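The record is given unchanged here:
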Amino acid sequence: MEQNIFSFLLAYREFKPHLLMIFAQVSYTFLFFITEASFNHGMSPYVYVTYRHVVAGIVMFPFAYFLERKVRPKLTFALFMEIFLLSVLGITLSLNLYFASLKYTSPTFVASMYNTVSSLTFIIALALRFEVVDIRNPRGIAKVFGTIISLAGVMTMTLYKGPIMKNLWHPLIHIQPKSASISEGGLRGSLLTVSCCVTISMWYIMQASTLKRYPAELSLTTWMCFIGAAQSAVFTMIVEHNNPSVWIIGINIDLWSTLYGGIVVGGLLMYIQLWCTVKKGPVFVTVFNPLCTIFVAILAYFIFGEKLYLGSIIGAFIVIMGLYLLLWGKEGDKEVDFKTKQFTSEDPECKV
């Protein structure tokens, strides 16, 4: 009995980052649909980003303050400016582009395009020497081919539609459809989505670098939430200056989407991603993004009655092949630890 418990604990410790990232992708899946319902209800995406991170910052603050009092380094001006830029990339710019693109496309399209983040992050990390590829090693070759195959799968889902798969039953939940002028695949939505993916890739790389100098994941999450909320508020006031009523939300889907986005996504999942970045590196975090695409496509088809094309199914299969190939290559790497020698081994580890 004790041997079985010990084996279970060892397996859990080894696969803890994997399980956390799968949980994150499931949570992101629900985010797609709850935010789309809120935007269709009339909530401004820019106001949503602001309120979401105000909520996230308030929720994360007590945990960061009390749990990291002994490990949190002094915040210098240079470090504050680095976190400020990190907030611009990871919250203000990327999320406003992200939700603006969702307004002009669909959850399935955005989730499919979002998978390019993994390939872009790998390429940037390789260029900046966060990743090492030994082309003489089978696992190194697997990382390269896994990235290429995943990108090919994303391109298949994006460029090839094919015949529509027939719905087996009526959708259980109806979401108000978008008008034809903002249909899926629109040029504006595509450009916004691509810009979002590039920005997020840069954010993943930069946060890995910042964690070297500020190895306190909870505190860094809290700082980014509050700074990002302030930045987004300024941006929203500029964009929505003729429509002050957008700041008012009632006890409806707008409120629930804000609370879910703030507590679960803006707070908990951001911390999980930072923790996994410390343990496994930025590329490991991004290679799980294709799972969200699969979950979104399944939920959209079976529950919400969204159209599902043959190209999406083929592309999803290719993406999964690339994902597992890249993961197999990554497992050959030594566990990544971005806490450099300037931080002693006595620094306590943050626990999820």
User: Anything to note?
Assistant: The chain has a mean pLDDT of 77. The chain is about 70% helix and 0% strand. The longest strand covers residues 164-165.
